Amino acid sequence: MSSRSKTYQELVDENAVLKQKIQELERADAERRRAEEALKASEERYRQLVMEAPAAIYEIDFTTRRFLSVNDVMCLYLGYTREELLAIDAMEIITEDTLKVFLERRMRLMAGEAISPNSELQIRRKDGSLIWVLININSSYTRTVDGHAVVTVVAHDISDRKQTEEALKTSEEKYRDLFKYAPAGIYEIDFTTGKIVNCNDAICDYSGYSREEVLTMNPTQILTEESLQRFLARHVKILAGEAVPESVEFELKRKDGTLIWCLLNNSYSRSPEGHVVSTVIIHDITARKRAEEALKRSEEQYRYLVKHAPAGIYEVDFTAGRFLSVNDAMCLYTGYSREELLEMEPIHIVAEESRDTMVERALRILAGEPVDNDVEVLIRRKDGGLTWAYLNNRFSMRQDGHFVSTVIAHNITERKRAEAEKQALTERLQRAEKMEALGTMAGGVAHDLNNVLGIVVGFAELLLCEVSGSDPMRAGLTDILDHGKRAAAIVQDLLTLARRGVSTREVLNLNDMIAEFEKSPAPAKLSAGRSGIRIVTELEPRLLNISGSAAHVSMSLYNLVANACESMPGNGTVIIRTRNRYLDKPVKGYDEIREGDYVVLSVSDTGQGISDADLPRIFEPFYTKKVMGRSGTGLGLAVVWGTMQDHDGYVNVESRVNAGSTFTLFFPVTREAPASERGSVAADDYMGRGETVLVVDDIEGQRAMATKMLGKLNYVVASAASGEEAVAYVREHPVDILVLDMIMEPGMDGLDTYRSIVQFRPGQKAVIVSGFSETERVHAAQAMGAGAYVKKPYILERLGLAVRQELDRK
Q1: For 632-678, what is each residue's pLDDT tens digit?
Q2: Confidence band (pLDDT; 50, 70, 90) for 628?
Q3: Residue 331 to residue 309: CA distance in whole angstroms
Q4: I need a surface site. Which of 160, 207, 428, 707 has the fewest CB within 10 A?
Q5: How far, in Å, CA of 666 to CA of 543, rounded?
């Protein structure tokens, strides 16, 4: 340097330069201090952000495997304090399953290789529980400090997501298993391509195709034509947004050609390619359909059996009080149509006699009380008739709370009638046995009394012969004799009752016996003291004869008239009637009267009548409502009953209190003539001349009798047992005249038979006969050309005259 001293100016310039450099240094120092302050503030903000960040943030020295810093969230994730984390090896908190991943990334990072910023690790918390975290390692946050690789890591707790993923994975695995192994058939159809894109094992079982075959097919190959059309129509509706049933039934074609029924349910979605895909679940319901068809057939058979069952079957809603259903037999039992019954209350078909019982039964059922399943009830038919029914009930409760009973009704009218007949027969048998026993007892008593009374009456009569008319003893002896005779008459009644059986018989005519009764003193004696009583007769002119004992029959007539007069303390009328009667069928009365020809004697009065309680006992000996010793002994009707038993006849009684009584005696007819008339009747006027006659009658005895009578009158006679047989006979063998019974059962009656014959034999002559009065059918036959009407029983003269007159009629 020059030793020359610097000039002032130079010093000034240097000083200025120095000042400038000092200012620059001061400015640089100020900038540094500001930079340091900014860096300090930035680092403070960074630390604050790290500490308060919602994610876990930490620094780790990969060389020493130590945490250099951790934020609060990291402590919260792991359950450690910050100090505890800074003191532990980072490898200790990583589970064995993810440690390998961590070590691999550490090695690659330390080697300077690029790695994916994100990875998932499973971390063990301080309490031993495990969490999944997603860690992010950005290369920009990786640095080397003293040769160590230091990394800043951001970690997020993804445990919930991992659980969801695991659940989804498990669910998908379950879905795949369910899809593959489900007992229901499942397949998917791509409607854009029309192909089946997936199916499970059950579809293969249902269809008989392998999985590979199914996946090459479309629905047209596994559905019947009708089912396919319904399936496509359903698909169109769904795509159009229309509501359809969740499930529908289709018929599926198997590979072997057989058909099965399936219940199908499908849903729709779109594939990633935008195709419409339907997932279809089907169940094989073939067994169910067969069961339904079998049930349907069974129900149809049940309805048919119920409808046509011989027993009445119906359902009753006890709560609503109405019929729910009735079958044909029930309509037949009641006479109502099904529509009429369904509109009625069940109680309205129950007869009054059974109504209280059925109402009480219904109330007990509704109250939940136990009742018998079976009951007998009397039903009132629509026409007013009565039918006995045996009801068997089965009770049930419907879902609506109504109490319902299914009832099977059996018509037991015939059984009840048979039981009544059996009871009546039993009562008659008991009555007969009692009468027999009483008769035997009465006979023994009467025999002894007769001996005693014979002495009393005899000596009384002898003593009367010894005393004069003025003797004071005569009046007493007369009383003894009169009362002895009255006692003797009673004894004779007892003997009549006891002897039972008619030792001698003769042909009798009741009209003649009644005429003799009218001429005797008996009517005057019976009406003595009763001036208001009249005894009148109504007698059939041509009354048939009977065979029997005149004494017994006369006594019975007298007792009946006496009994009638006794029943009328004031004014009244006794009517004695006779008539011929033919019974086609038995008649039930006091006795059961069998079919046949009878002469009927009836005695009616207008007296006090007989009560229902007394009626069964009126024929018992000594049973009487009269004052004993004044007006009767109680033996009169017993004698009547015994007489009819001896004559093979029957007794019937009809009586009402305060309305009078009618006693009717049925005597069997005899064809014998009275001894005084035998051989005296001239038959020339009605004898036959060899003409042919066909007797048509369904009763064998009647046919035989008419055939014998007409044969005796010189006719050539044939017979037929029915209308059908008569028509067939006349077609092959023309006859001059028919003797045609009007009432024949079963089959054609007289009118139908005659109508059929005149169609191919115009002008066929005929005589109509019947045991009943003339009817409209008799008149109809006569209008068609038939001749006289002859009432049964057959009388030779009457039948012969009718046939002869019809044959001679032009």
Answers
A1: 455 667 778 777 877 788 888 888 888 888 998 999 998 776 655 54
A2: very low
A3: 12
A4: 160
A5: 13
* Burial (0-12, 13-18, 19+ Cβ within 10 Å), 341: buried
What value, to the nearest 5°, has the Cα angle with vertex 504 and ends 500 and 510?
90
Amino acid identity of 534? R
Q: Which among 153, 159, 161 is positioned nearest to 137, based on CA atoms?
A: 153
Instruction: Render pLDDT for 97-127 as a digit per residue (tens, 0 to 9).
Output: 777 777 777 777 666 676 667 788 888 888 9
Most confident of the ranges 175-189, 467-481, 509-523: 509-523
Contact criterion met (CB below 8 Å) for 387 and 333: yes
Task: Determine how β-strand 148-157 pairs with β-strand 185-190.
Answer: unpaired
Lowest mean pLDDT across 229-233, 291-295, 306-310, 778-782 = 306-310
With tokens 């947004």, the residue in question is 241
> Backbone phi, then psi, for 489, in 5-degree steps?
-65, -40
Helix 750-760 to helix 723-732 angle (10° resolution) is 20
How many contiguous H segments (helices) and E segments (strands) does the chain have?
23, 29
DSSP bridge pairs for 789? 768
Residues in the chain: 810
Helices (H), ranges, 128-279: 159-181, 201-207, 211-214, 225-239
Q: Tokens 């004869």 — which residue? A: 545
Residue 793, preceding peptide bond in cis (omega within 30° of 0): yes
* 628, 591 Cβ separation under 8 angstroms: no
Q: What is the average per-residue pLDDT within 61-81? A: 85
Spatial neighbors of 204 by CB under 8 A, at least 6 apart, are 210, 211, 214
Q: Give the bridge partners for 377, in sequence order.
A: 389
Task: With CA atoms as reference, report the closest residue to 219 among 239, 201, 235.
Answer: 235
Question: What does the block give as tokens for 125?
Answer: 């918390």
Amino acid occupying residue 791:
K
pLDDT at 736: 94
CB 386 within 8 A of CB 378: yes
Q: What type of residue sits at position 543?
A: L
Token pair in block for residue 48: 């604050």
Instruction: List Cα–Cα distances, 717 to 477, 531, 688, 694, 732, in angstroms.
Output: 71, 57, 11, 6, 15
Residue closest to 152 by CA, chosen among 66, 59, 68: 59
- The stretch 601-624 carries a mean pLDDT of 75
Is 710 in contact with 688 (CB distance < 8 Å)?
yes
DSSP letter at 246?
S
Contact 206, 199 (CB under 8 A): no
Residues 740, 755 contacting (CB under 8 angstroms): no
